[in-house]
Amino acid sequence: MPLKVDTGTPEWQKWASQYRAEGNGIPIIYVIRADGQMLYGRSGALTGNALPQMLIQAGSGAGKILTDAQVGVVQKAVHAAQVAMDQQDYELAVRKLVALKKLGTPGHLGSFAQPALKADQLAKQLADIAHAKLGEIKQKMVGEPLQGLVMLADVRRSFSALPAVKADVVKIERKYAKDPQLRDLRRDADALARARALARSPKGHKRAVESLQALAKRGPDTPVGAAAADMLRQLDSKQLAGNDANGDVGNTESVEGQTSGEEATARERRPLRTWTDVTGKYRVRARLLRIAETQVVLRREDGQQVSVPLGKLSREDRRYIESSAPIK
Asked: Which of 74, 82, 216, 285 could form a disulfide with 229 if both were Cys (CB 3.0 to 4.6 A apart)?
């Protein structure tokens, strides 16, 4: 984009303080890259073949030039990837960035346009997250091999489409594939990881539950049976807390707000019990904290607060609430 700046204006003072050109005469010719890097800055007119030769030389460091339409595609992908990352849906974030592969290698698009640089930055952040998880996997494999293999399957599913991650994932998988004692665990880990991935989607939730129920039948004394049962409890807890397919049961709250010491003590004395929704399908172990209008506020075993509509709870739970005279 050609620009002309009058040396007698305030804009020129700002420009000249940022970009130091060689020479003192006029005109001064600049070539500035999209990220603000100066590729050429000298005084004096360029005649004959000097101008095109300079442009060719400077252009070699200008990076890939994107059309307006391509910039729009990148901006849309960056926005979607950022939203997915904020929700810790790394698989979706990677998928949105990898969709830009027609413009260049994900993480190295080769353009200095701001949207492209942001896409590269997000890809690097995702690669860093993946490598941190790979480091955790190595530690898990020492004492909890099943959990380590589940994490490895998750990383493969979510991150291996990134070139910066794929080779490392393959290397680790090959290492554990050589261990015959891990053969059955690898199969079980893949099944658990698939169920977890399905559970993230409302359409896949039912299949995830069915798969985990089948694995849980192996019994709590087996690693995969215990892991499947634990995942089922987590899914049930999320369902009762309002993360079901319809999204209308309730919502998870942040840490409890300001309360007096006596109120907090009284709440913590309430027993930990199993709460059930009206269908009898979803359960969660939690302690009653208070009633907030038509919402019942519970504290789960893991310390997380959940807010559940009173009408979603079973009749037995509602009777318990009435008899407990909860603090409001």
From this structure: 216
CA–CA separation, 189 and 239 (whole Å): 24
Given phi > 0 = left and psi -120 to 50 = alpha, else beta, which region is 242? left
Greatest pairwise CA separation for the chain in angstroms? 95
- Spatial neighbors of 44 by CB under 8 A, at least 6 apart, are 23, 25, 27, 29
Residues 6 or more apart from 134 whose CB is under 8 A from it? 152, 155, 168, 169, 172
Model confidence pLDDT, tens digit, residues 89-113: 899 999 999 999 999 998 899 898 8
Neighbours of 177 (CB within 10 A): 11
Domain ranges across the chain? 10-59, 68-200, 252-324
Q: How far apart are CA 98 and CA 215, in angstroms?
A: 33
Q: What are phi and psi of 204, to 5 degrees?
A: -95, 0
CATH class of 252-324: mainly beta
Task: For residue 184, give the H/E element and its range.
Answer: helix 183-199
Local structure of 220: helix, strand or coil: coil
Distance (Å, rounded) from C-alpha 187 to C-alpha 218? 14
How far is Cα 85 from Cα 40, in angstroms, rounded to an integer?
Answer: 38
